[in-house]
């Protein structure tokens, strides 16, 4: 079981006792608070809306996204009949048909019933077979409670069964990769000293088939105060190699190439991201980088022949350079081309880069305005389809469509999601608010076409603003049914707003770094500016404006609660960071120092405390109605910060505070569709009733 890592530090915190995650007294407190919240929110109307949301999540008409390995297309699927899910595969002809015939590989519900553990699917790692051979072995990752700690077990794709005496790595926050058909590179909890202060593996060992973890040979290690160690094997024929990554923190790392029995550092800036594809080295610097007399901008994408680079050459080709409106979000190699997924003012743009034409770039005409479209390779290892790509297109009012195309040819729609609400009643607009330092901050507004700009519309503002994560347009039947289609007594629909504040990645690394450490307040000023803009434009009023966020977004709305309470009528705060004095000592919090700062350094606590909601609470402030929700098994943020925040607010006499903790579900707050439907319904129900005066 995962517990808080430190409950003995000197502190005057009267709610430190709630940090014992699985203590009997603590869980008794949780159950009592859950009962109060459920008594207030769970009504027959609530249960009907919960069922409506569950219909979306369990819909058998949604797109079964698949990954190609060899001749098969693999998919993991949950629905009403498969609560914990099934892992399955099919052929291309079958997948492209209206009613694919799936071959069942693993029934997680049945496995859980047999083994007496409520397993939660966490993914699969395929072993690349010999050239021309079928895929035979895979490591299946399963979590016992929905948390980040997982067990890895070897699975035989021929027998459709776990391998007797095969690889079986016990449950931990592991990082595993295949070293070959008969060995693994294993980073896991080997005992004292083997995990970093961030609760991730510090060492990687070579585990041969039939070998013992405890006596496995150490292959790579990093410092205790670094974030994580990882070793991966690149099995590409003709380019086989081992890479080791020393992740120092969230944004800095050192990558090494195995050469001549040792590790050779790939000499790029520690804050740069790199990837290898056959002979090519790709580098994306996070800050401006000068090499061999040339300066490359933050957020650009550079390419060079790896052998030449290792020989001292630094004549990079710039395949992407950002501008004030355009940023690189991701890239993907097909067999012979490089796909770039960009954002231009938070709308998608895709470029195809051709190395054979001196890295010439062509636009892929597949991106309507105010939509999100992502392109990525189907299977660059496939001799016949190596230049095929998937294209996933979605918008706030456009159900997702999956296309398959070939570079230089056409693309064809393969699957489309159904409509879950009356999209034609609504419209999407993009607006820009002006933050306190003059920065223009974009946001999306999804509202009825006949929206009255008289300040009378219940409005939900959502955001994140951290870790260079971009908030992009996406269709959501859950938001459609849970918020947009709901109406007040006088027939007004809900308005949904998505913020693109600093701290995110919408405009690349500069947009992110603008809100790091001592500048964290800029993310909150941006969000507050959007709230003010919505009121100024007549969309809503403070009493009818709610906000919601999870994880780092929970910290965001926690700061709205404590610093901008006058702007909101209700706040839903999910799986949040809130106690920024002790966050580094709780669950995986130490790994986020690069984002927020180190509260154990007095000079950094000076600014960290200014955005620590737990410490900003006062007993003389009129706070908006608040729901704080979390999950017991969340081993990333952990539930204790949410518990302590709710307990302290109630102790201060703050009225209208509700707390709910799912007893399973991990950092997502839910480990199956039923739990997810309850979580969504509870947040929407609280916000709607709090804003419209029925709570």
UniProtKB/TrEMBL annotation:
InterPro entries: AB_hydrolase_fold, Pept_S9A_N, Peptidase_S9_cat, Peptidase_S9A, Prolyl_oligopep/macrocyclase. The keyword Acetylation does not apply. Residues 9-225 form the Peptidase S9A N-terminal domain. Keywords: Hydrolase, Protease, Serine protease. Pfam families: Peptidase_S9, Peptidase_S9_N. Residues 493-692 form the Peptidase S9 prolyl oligopeptidase catalytic domain. PANTHER family: PROLYL ENDOPEPTIDASE. This is Prolyl oligopeptidase family serine peptidase. It comes from Arthrobacter burdickii.
